Amino acid sequence: MSKIPLIDLKAQYATIKFEIDAAIQRVIETTAFINGPDVQTFEQEFARYCGAAHVIGVASGTAALQLALQACGVQPGDEVITVAHTFCATAEAIVHVGARPVFVDIDPQTYTIDPDEVARAITPRTRAIVPVHLYGMPADMDAIRALAQQHGLVIIEDAAQAHGATYKGQSVGTLGHAACFSFYPGKNLGAYGDAGAVTTNDPALAQRVLALRDHGRAVRPDGKRAKYEHDQVGYGERLDTLQAAVLRVKLRHLPDWTARRQAIAQRYLELLADVPIGLPFVPVDRAPVWHLFVIRVPHRAEVQAYLAAQGIETGIHYPIPLHLQKSFANLGYRAGDLPHTEAAAQEILSLPIYPELSEEQQARVARALRAAAHELANRP
Ligand SMILES: Cc1ncc(COP(=O)(O)O)c(C=O)c1O
Predict the structure, then answer these.
(1) Do 216 and 233 contact (CB within 8 A), yes or no?
(2) Does domain 9-247 have CATH number 3.90.380.10?
(3) Cβ-count burial of 42 within 10 angstroms (0-12 exposed, 13-18 middle, 19+ buried)?
(4) What are the phi and psi torsion angles at 264 (to 5°)?
(5) From atom 8 of ligand 1, which residue's Cα is the shortest distance away?
(6) For residues 201 and 297, what is the distance between their CA atoms, to the nearest angstrom?
(7) Which H helix or E strand runs over 158?
(8) How far is the CA of 61 from the centre of ligand 1 (A)?
(9) Would you write out the chain's pLDDT as a tens digit for each of its 380 residues?
(10) Alpha helices in 184-240 (DSSP H)
(11) How many Cβ atoms are within 10 Å of 18's Cβ, its own excluded?
(12) How far is the CA of 66 from the centre of ligand 1 (A)?
C-alpha cells in the first residue's frame, strides 16, 4: 500500500525540475547571491500577483512580521491583538518588537479572528491588530478595518498561509497597512529554504522595511543603498537571491496550483458531505486557497491512527494554542480563556492537500475517513 503524505514536495519538484535547475544554475553562474536581480524582479512579479504597490522580500515570514510591526511603529508598551490559534511566529514577532500579544478567540466556523472579540480587547494601549488568514482563509477584514479606523489602529495581515486568497474579490496582502507572507517550503508558494515578504501600498512604510531588512543602510543620492553607511540599526533579513529565483519559477505556476487546490477542496467537500465529521465552511465573500484542508473529529487520536494504518499522513495545525504555550506563560492566560480556540485545538485534523494529489489518492483518503468515522460511531 503506497503512502499518501500530508504534503509532497518531491512530486512538485518533478513537475518543474528543468525550470528550477536552470534558475538556480543562473544565480550560481552570475554569483549574484545577495540582492541579485532576481530579488527585485520577484518583488515586482509578486506585487503584480497580489495587486500590492510594494513588495519587500525578506528572509522568512517571521522576519516579515517583525519588520512590518517595527516599521508600522509598534513599540515597547504597545498591545497587539491577534489569535492564539496560529503558528507561534505570529506572536513571537510581537514580543520581539517589545509589544504585548493580546490573544482573542476565533470564529469557530472559519478559524480566523473574531471581530467582536477584537472589539472587546481594545484598550488605550492597543496599537495594532494582526489577523491571520489561517489555512488560506481570509479573516473578516471589513469588520476588522472598521474597528481599526474607529480606534486609529494599524492592521498587519499575517498572510503566511494565504497567497492569492481573496476577500470580497480583493487579494490578501492589500487589505491592511502591511501584510506578511511566508515562503517556507511547504507553503502554497514555497522556496527551497526560508524566505518571506512584506507587502504594502504605503511607499514610506515600504522604504522603512527596505532599510530595516538590510542593516538600516542609508539611501544615496542616486537612490541606491550605501554599503557602509547606516541611518539606523537594522537587521540582516534580506531575501536570498537563490530563493528569489526559485520563487519566480514557482510563482508562474501558482495560479494553476491554487486552482488545483480549490478543485481538490471542493471534491473533499463532496466526497465527505455525508460523513459525520466537521467540514470547513466557506463564507460567500471569501475565496480561500486551501493551504490546509482541516476537518473536525471528536475522537481525533483514533481517527489519525486509523488513517496512519492505511498509509495516510495527517497533521494538527496547531495542537497547543499560543496562550497555553510555555513560551507565552508570562502573559498570564489560563485554560478556558479562549473556548473556541481550545475546542478547535482538541479536534482539528489536516488532510493531505497539494496540487499533485491524484483523484485516486484523494478517494482513498475519503474512503478511509468514512470507514474510520463509521467504526468509531459503532463502537460500544
Ligand atoms: C500563520 C503563520 N505565521 C507566520 C509564519 C512564519 O513564517 P516562516 O516560517 O517563514 O518564518 C508561518 C509559517 O511558518 C505561519 O504559518
Answers:
(1) yes
(2) no
(3) buried
(4) -65, -45
(5) 61
(6) 41
(7) strand 154-158
(8) 5
(9) 799 999 999 999 999 999 999 999 999 999 999 999 999 999 999 999 999 999 999 999 999 999 999 999 999 999 999 999 999 999 999 999 999 999 999 999 999 999 999 999 999 999 999 999 999 999 999 999 999 999 999 999 999 999 999 999 999 999 999 999 999 999 999 999 999 999 999 999 999 999 999 999 988 888 888 889 999 999 999 999 999 999 999 999 999 999 999 999 999 999 999 999 999 999 999 999 999 999 999 899 999 999 999 999 999 999 999 999 999 999 999 999 999 999 999 999 999 999 999 999 999 999 999 999 988 877 76
(10) 203-213
(11) 9
(12) 12
CB distance 113 to ligand 1 below 6 Å: no
Count, residues in the chain? 380
How many angstroms does the Cα of residue 175 sit away from the middle of ligand 1? 19
Superfamily of domain 254-377 in the CATH hierarchy: Aspartate Aminotransferase, domain 1 (3.90.1150.10)
Q: How far apart are CA 354 and CA 13, in angstroms?
A: 13
- Cα–Cα dist 5/110, whole Å: 25
Task: Judge contact between 68 and 199, C-beta under 8 A.
Answer: no
Query: For ligand 1, what atom is nearest to the CA of residue 183?
Result: 10
Whole-angstrom Cα distance, residue 58 to residue 49?
17
**Is the minimum distance from the CB of 243 to ligand 1 under 6 angstroms?**
no
Distance (Å, rounded) from C-alpha 153 to C-alpha 76? 16
Q: Which three cell numbers stand for residue 338?
A: 479562549
What SS3 class is residue 295?
A: strand
Mutation to probe ligand 1, out of 65, 66, 85, 87 (largest number of atoms < 8 A from CB): 87
Return the domain boundaries, the chain: 9-247, 254-377
> Are the C-beta atoms of residues 135 and 294 closer than 8 Å to each other?
yes
322 Cβ closer than 6 Å to some ligand 1 atom: no
Q: Which three cell numbers mark 24?
A: 538556480
State the angle between helix axes of 61-71 and 203-213 in degrees (0 to 180), rounded to the nearest 10.
Answer: 120
Residues 6+ apart with CB under 8 A from 358: none
